[in-house]
UniProtKB/TrEMBL annotation:
Residues 388-397 have a biased composition (Pro residues). It comes from Streptomyces amritsarensis. The chain crosses the membrane at residues 36-58, 70-93, 99-121, 128-148, 160-180, 201-224, 236-254, 266-283, 289-309, 330-351, 357-377. It is a multi-pass membrane protein. It is found in: Cell membrane. Keywords: Cell membrane, Membrane, Transmembrane, Transmembrane helix. This is MFS transporter.
Length: 419
């Protein structure tokens, strides 16, 4: 079990690095390719949209393949996409490589979440998912800062060469450490599609889009906010990302444990905390020390959302969770795209570097409201659910007799025999 989860975490590390590292390299990419920072920020949005499209398509395309085989295929495509990024000579080629890599992202995490959950007892599933996502959090602690440092020192293309190498290691780990998976039964795709008839699945996906969109609205423009407002140097951005990533690691573990204990109350608490910390961040981002402290808290509460959001979708898609799980990864990245786009729109209209964080707080509040609606429907469904039918009809109430010599409540058949 641990070896399999380690292999999944290595793949997650590579994918997380290529997804997030571009945030720390926006100025370098913009200067080298002669585009504006908001245009460079579209590399974040483009990647996220690639995940949105690729997650359901790639998962459906591989519905008849064993899950291990599909994970290996996805990691091979991921390596090819990052190789194209490393070789890119212009903005279009870089965007193309990002899109190819993004196509594999949602399906890998979606199928990987199902594999991880199947390896453990039902009451440990959220923690197993969190362990796989540890690769994603370590990407923020190690991969993104190191990738940012490489890009600043040796050019941003060197970062994508490094990610390509990580992808190859992940590919070998999947081949050697993940046990063989049986092929899905015939008709599995129909079952996977059928879960989307459930309104609660759609509410869970909407909660993910809005809740995690709040994280990325602020995170996408973290580098210019820290340098322009808080007064950090460009070289300090990598260390700030380490601090943010450390918060992610803590939040990921705590979010998984909380979700295993009590899923919906944990989700309410985490989304409410995210909204609060983003509001606070709009004020603390103007001074170095308060900004750094709030950044760590932002990382912790932001990534604590991931295990319960993923577990909620899989809970509502019980019986055929693979496609819904991948769709939720698409929902995470749709939220990423929405948050990055709205944040960039606010900056482009001159609303200042704190405006993306205000937008993030609003999105997190909307996610909390959607989760509350979903929980209300759960409770109402439990109240109105009919009781199970009894195997035999209840016995008739005993007849009451008041004649002389007959005791109260004597059954008529017993009374007749006694005579």
């Amino acid at each position: 079990m641990r070896a399999s989860l380690l292999a999944l975490a290595v793949g997650a590390f590579g994918i997380g690095t290529t997804e997030f590292v571009i945030v720390g390299l926006l100025p370098e990419v913009a200067d080298d390719l002669s585009v504006s920072i908001p245009s460079a920020g579209m590399l974040v949005t483009g990647y996220a949209l690639g995940v949105v499209v690729g997650a359901p398509l790639m998962t459906a395309a591989g519905a008849r393949l064993p899950r291990k085989t599909m994970l290996v295929v996805l990691m091979a495509i991921f390596v090819a996409g990052n190789l194209l990024c490393a070789l890119a000579g212009d903005y279009a080629a870089l965007m193309g490589g990002r899109l190819i890599a993004a196509l594999t992202h949602g399906a890998f995490f979606g199928i990987g979440s199902v594999v991880a959950a199947d390896l453990v007892a039902p009451d440990r599933r959220a923690s197993a998912i969190a362990l796989m996502f540890t690769g994603l959090t370590l990407a923020n602690v190690l991969g993104v800062p190191l990738g940012t440092f490489l890009g600043q020192e040796f050019g941003w293309r060197s970062t994508f060469w490094a990610v390509t190498g990580i992808g190859i290691v992940g590919l070998l780990a999947l081949i050697t450490l993940v046990p063989a998976q049986p092929a899905p039964p015939s008709g599995a795709l129909r079952g996977e599609l059928a879960v989307f008839r459930r309104p609660q699945v759609w509410l869970a996906l909407a909660t993910t889009v809005l809740g995690f969109g709040g994280v990325f609205a602020s995170f996408t423009y973290l580098a210019p906010m820290m340098t322009e407002l808080a007064g950090f140097s460009d070289g300090a951005v990598a260390w700030l990302l380490v601090l943010f990533g450390a918060g992610l690691c803590v939040g990921n573990v705590l979010g998984g444990r909380a979700a295993d204990r009590s899923l919906m109350p944990s989700l309410y608490l985490i989304l409410g905390g995210l909204c609060l910390v983003l509001v606070v961040f709009t004020f603390t981002s103007r001074a170095a020390l308060p900004a750094a402290v709030t950044l760590a808290a932002f990382g912790a509460i932001g990534f604590a959302t991931v295990p319960p959001l993923q577990a909620r979708v899989m809970q509502q898609a019980a019986g055929a969770p693979a496609l819904a799980s991948a769709a939720n990864i698409a929902a995470f990245n749709l939220g990423n795209a929405l948050g990055a786009w709205l944040g960039g729109l606010a900056v482009a209209h001159g609303l200042g570097w704190t405006s993306p964080t205000w937008i993030g707080a609003g999105l997190a509040a909307a996610g909390l409201g959607t989760a509350a609606l979903s929980g209300h429907l759960d409770r109402r469904s439990r109240r109105t659910r009919p009781l199970p039918a009894e195997p035999f009809p209840p016995a008739p109430l005993p007849a009451q007799h008041h004649s002389a010599g007959a005791g109260h409540g004597t059954h008529p058949i017993v009374e007749q025999k006694s005579r």
